[in-house]
Amino acid sequence: MISISLCLIVRNEEDVLARCLDSVKGIADEIIVVDTGSLDRTKEIASDYTPKIYDFEWIDHFAAARNFAFGKATCEYILWLDADDIFKEEDQVKLLELKSSLSTEVDTVSMFYNLTQDETGQVINRLRRNRLVKRSRNFRWIGAVHEYLEVYGVASASDIAVTHASTRHDSERNLRIYEQRLAKGEELSPRDLYYYANELKDHSLNERAVHFYGLFLQSNKGWVEDNIAACGKLADCYEALGNQELALESALRSFSYGSPKADNCCRIGYYHLQKGSYETAAFWYESALRAPRQDEAWSMQNTSCSTWLPHLQLCVCYDKLGEWLKAYEHNEIARAYRPDHPSVQHNKTYLEGLLLPAQALEASDLSLTQTAP
C-alpha cells in the first residue's frame, strides 16, 4: 500500500476546509496545509486535522505556492486538492482501493474533476487533471494563474472523481493578476492569452475577450483542445455582442482543428434555429448527438451538449416542422435526463395536447372502419 501526502494551499477557507479534510479522513497519511494569508479561522480548523501548517507570503503566483506545499510532503505520493474540493463517498471508496493496489511504477494518476452539476446531481462540466503523483519525481507546478502540473513517465487514468463544491469565489482575483502582469509589460504566453481571454469573457468584457482569443489563435501555438474551445468561446462572445454571423463563423472555424465537438454543433444549430431554418438546425443538433463523446478528455466538457440539450432543441425543430410525434419522442429523451426542467415539462403538456386528440380520432376512425358492412 502506498502512502499519501495531501497538499492544499488555502486562504480564508473556514466555511469549506473541514468538509474537504473530512472527505480524506483515513485516506491521507499526511496533510500539508499552506496558508497564504488567512484572516479567519482557517488555520485553527486546519489544526484539528494536522500539525503541518505553514505560512507562505502570497506573491500572486499559484504555482509558487503549490510548489512550496509539495516541498513539505514526505510520503511516497502527493495528492492535491483545493479547499472547496471533496471526494464523495463512492470516490472515497475508490481512492482507498487505489491506495492499496497502485503499483509504485506509476508516476502520475489522473482523476475526473467534476465542476458543475444539475439539480439531479448529473455532472454538467468535467475534465481530467493529474491528481496523485510520485513525490520522488519532483514534478513542478507552472504558471502564476491557471497553473498546471508538468508530469511525465508512467501514467494511469482513474475513474475517481474530485467534486468541486464551491460556496463562493473571488471572481476578480485571476483577472486582477493578469491585468497586473500586463501593466508590468509582461508578454503573455499562448496559454495565458487563452486563460486571460476566458477571464475577460467571464466578466462580460466581450470585446476585449474577442481580441485576446484572436491573439491566442493567431499564435498557432495553442493546445489543439484549447484552440477548439477558444473558437466556441469566441462564438459566444460574438453572440453576446449581437453579431450572429461572426458567431457562426467562429463555431465553424473549430472544425479546422479537429473533428466536430458537440458544443459547437449546438452553437451552429442554434444559429439556424434563430433564423427559422428548422431542417438545417435539426441536422446540426443530430450531429451534436452523433459527435464522439469526450468522456476521457482533458479539456472542459459540457455534457449537456451531448445529452439532453440537443434533444430539447430537436423537439422545438420538429414541432415547427409539424412532426409532433418526433418532437414528443425527443422531448421524452430530454425528460429522462432533466425531468424537472420547466421547458421539458411545458413541451410535454403542449405536445400531449396536440397528439392525444389526434390519436383518439384515429382510434375512432379505425373502429368505424372495422364495423362497416
Automatic annotation (TrEMBL):
<dbReference type="InterPro" id="IPR029044">
    <property type="entry name" value="Nucleotide-diphossugar_trans"/>
</dbReference>
<protein>
    <submittedName>
        <fullName>Beta 1,4 glucosyltransferase</fullName>
    </submittedName>
</protein>
<dbReference type="Pfam" id="PF00535">
    <property type="entry name" value="Glycos_transf_2"/>
</dbReference>
<dbReference type="InterPro" id="IPR001173">
    <property type="entry name" value="Glyco_trans_2-like"/>
</dbReference>
<dbReference type="InterPro" id="IPR019734">
    <property type="entry name" value="TPR_rpt"/>
</dbReference>
<dbReference type="InterPro" id="IPR011990">
    <property type="entry name" value="TPR-like_helical_dom_sf"/>
</dbReference>
<dbReference type="Pfam" id="PF13181">
    <property type="entry name" value="TPR_8"/>
</dbReference>
<feature type="domain" description="Glycosyltransferase 2-like">
    <location>
        <begin position="5"/>
        <end position="97"/>
    </location>
</feature>
